[in-house]
Amino acid sequence: MPTPKGGGIVVIACIAVAWGMMATAAPQAGIILAVIAAALALALLSWLDDLKGLNPLGRLLGQVAAVAFVLFSPFSETLADPFFAGPYFSGLLPVWLDAVFAGLVWLWFINLFNFMDGIDGLAGVETACVGIGIALVAVATGLAAPFGAFGLTIAAAALGFLWWNWHPARIFLGDVGSVPLGFLLGWLLLGLAQNGQWAAALILPLYYLGDATITLLRRGLKGEKVWQAHRLHFYQHAVKTGLDHGQVVRHVLFVDLLLVALAVAAARGWGWASLICSGVAVSWLLFFLSGDHPARKE
After folding, report:
1. For the purposes of burial, counting CB atoms within 10 Å of the CB of 139, is it exposed (0-12), middle (13-18) or buried (19 or more)?
2. What percent of the chain has pLDDT over 90?
3. What's the pTM value of the predicted model, to 2 decimals?
């Protein structure tokens, strides 16, 4: 039986309604509504891509426009502490370069989130864990209440979707879901970095960052067209070499929960120790999924 895609329409709609309701009670309503509008525009663009298959350059330009609309919107002036604070990269870059580099990182996160939506349940588990992690870091560091609520809202929507997407999946997110989800989570993670929690912002999505970035570099070095679909990610290799979708996602879930705990530890002052432990955990997971771990060969 063919499995329909496009279930992300409902996920994004639920998040947009919930965020819109919360925005009415937040002093930063302007920027929140700007983010919602950009996410919905990306959802529409991605829905058209799901239906017709748009040109990769056109998709990228749409994402650039959405990111630039938020980063350089006049609403950005309302980003006051404690919701959002200083520069994205702790003042290490000039102001203009700080925003530009943040935009490039955000664009990469949107696309890697889309790239990684390739097996049943993976995107839902990752979204839920990152959303819960954002909320816990917000609580641990005393960030404004709406910040954690936004993370929990995304997590709740992802967990609801998992009911339909767990292996064997009855419906898929499609680009209409994965692209805006990457956009919204990327905005929240950049917000953590703005509030000095750059280590936690790096730790929470570290598995996705590692799998997608290493795979892209490998393909680029081989001269392949990195924007074309493929089945070379670590999680895809694990499926091809014997694990089913549920087994792969359960291993990812275990490491993601560990990353959530380490992100909270980083927010409480154990930054470098948490980063090192996170790197070890994700390296083990990638090694395991690659098929080189003894347990995978048995």
Report:
1. middle
2. 55
3. 0.91
